[in-house]
Fold:
Amino acid sequence: MILKAEGISKTFFRNTGSANYFYAVSPLSIEILPESVTVLTGRSGSGKTTLLNMLAGILEPTEGKVLLDDTDLYSLKDDVLSRLRNERIGVVPQARSAVDTLTVMENILLPARLYGKHAPAEEARQWMEQFGIDSLADAMPRELSGGELRRMAIIRAVVQDPDILFADEPTGDLDDENTEKVLSALYSFAHDQKKAVFIVTHENDALKYADRLYKMEKGRIGLQENQSGGAL
Amino acid sequence: MSSLSVKNLKRKPGRTIALVLLTAFLALAVFGGSMVVLSLRNGLQSLEARLGADIILVPSEAQSKVSFQNMFLQGTTGAFYMDASVTEKALEVPGVEKAAPQVFLASLKADCCSIKIQVIGIDPEKDFTVQPWIARSLTGELGEMEVAVGCKVEADIGEIIRIYEQRCKVIARLEPTGTGLDTAVYCNMDTMNQLLAAAEAKGISHKITSDDDSVVSAVYIKVKDGYDIDTVNTALTGKLRKVTAVRTRSMITGVSDSLAGVSRTITAMIIVIWILAFVILLLAYILIVRERSREFAVLRLLGASRKMLGQMALLESSLCGLTGGVIGVIIAAVGVFSFAVLIEHSLGLPYLIPTFSTVMLLGIGTILLSAAVSAAASAFAAWRLSRVNPGTALREGN
Amino acid sequence: MKKTMISGCIILVLSLVISIGSFTFLSPCMHEDGSVGACWWAGRTLLGLGCLLGVLAVLALVSGSARFGAYLSTIAVCVLGILTPGTLINLCRMSDMHCRAVMQPAMIILFSVSGLAAAVGAWMSGKGKA
Structure:
């Protein structure tokens, strides 16, 4: 599995300032490989989330292609792309992403149930135990704290068993102990299960788990560290 | 996705109840209003069938014509008389095929209740309007001091009811007609003569003059095929003194016009309610879009396609519509059936509830329509929700 | 307010409608000559049952421990209320008289809805106890 972005960029229309259009993400190319953790840092507003969304198949680039094993994601029909994302791409968004009318367990098993697949309840319980929210299986999202919701979202993405997992600020609401647990779990997910993990963060805790480290500034990306020796 | 839709509805009870109640109100208006209109139309058809005759002869007294119409429409009692020879004289008029006399008597008070009831005496051999209808509920004939009662007289077969202290045995209960005849009691002429004598003894005279022996209240005329009813009508009026000939068509036309007016009013009300309910539903679903964008964005993020999201939204609105439809139809049915008599009295028109199969069809049709309207109202919202962008809907800080 | 009390509120309102209605807009027939028929007694009975319903509703609202029993008793009273007009006590013979056209169907509906509310209330109270 290789996720490759070729010359992708994203422009948005803004009704203020001297120019009507601005580059949220300047044209760039990037590769995400399996058995690796890629970390992208940068200030707020630098375009990290926009890049993540494009790579995850959620936001169509203005220019360029995103290829998952040579399949151009954005050339696919919506139902095909949706199914592919459900099966192969997991996303942990920065914002609260629980469905309020479902319990915590129902939220975690939702990706499987969308397409009538077998729901890995036992695996979900194990992850919930590991992250300390096993007692909240039947709770409703409104009863959970921000940190607990964040952990729920991570478990949902991991249990989905995607080939590539995107996480936007996964440790934002977490204390130090849980931050370590989550980052360590994502690292194991990548290396033990031969998956790709892409983390967007502005915290330093994630840096030590990075196999590749990128920095984004004003829509432009730069490789900081590359253990495999490759470059942009 | 369907179980997700059901969960969404169950776990947001406030929102679900509001939408269900709105469609219930819609269904109630449609079913209830349609039932009333259909019952009125049924009643009119029944009236036409019950009148049977082309012309009805009644005494010329000013009140008798009005009393006669009210007797048919509202079941108010009437008692007016003319000489029995009118029947024979009417048969002599060219174009008259049949002439059937009836005698009316209003009881002061029967043991059934404290109000007057209408007693109608018929000649079973000559009668062609009431007799066929009685024959549907009675295999034999009306014997002496035996009566058949309209469906609104609560007397069981075999029971004895007292009219002017005379004991009369109930031998049949007649089918509903939706007209004022449902509150009448029918007997043959021998029984009627005994009742008239009993009334006389109570000081209620039916005699036109002191020499009168034999009287009738109305004579039903059937015109021969090929003859113009108006011409026969004129001939009868010319030949018979102190007698008014009532064209049944004019009575029916009068009722029909009133019915049309009521029908139009009810139909207009239903249309207004529909439009209002649809607009409110449309607005409600548009407001819901804003509230549910995040939820649908999460589903999109997890791999739900636009088609799945659209189907989910439409399924939820259809379920609300279906549930509301069932509730509305049930409430309307309970009201219309339980208070049928009250509705009939309020309208003052013939009113006969349609057959079970018609009611069922109407009910099912109303329920399906409610579901369809609900789905239609949510179509725009469903389209918007299916196109939600997870990237923008789930922005940081939201 | 507890969910189990909602039924009590509904029953209280309906009991007021039944009680007040039984001698006003839902009353039995008014005879022209001032005499009373069988339906008059049915109306008095319904007034009494309506008042009893109100008492049971208040009991269900104020006493948590008696709530379940009060709802069960309400169901029994409602069955009686449904059977009173026309079955236990005769009404006038003519279907278009006020007792049959208005009082009987209205009271049957009101007592049925009360009974249903009591059944739901009893079920919810019983669930809480279990």
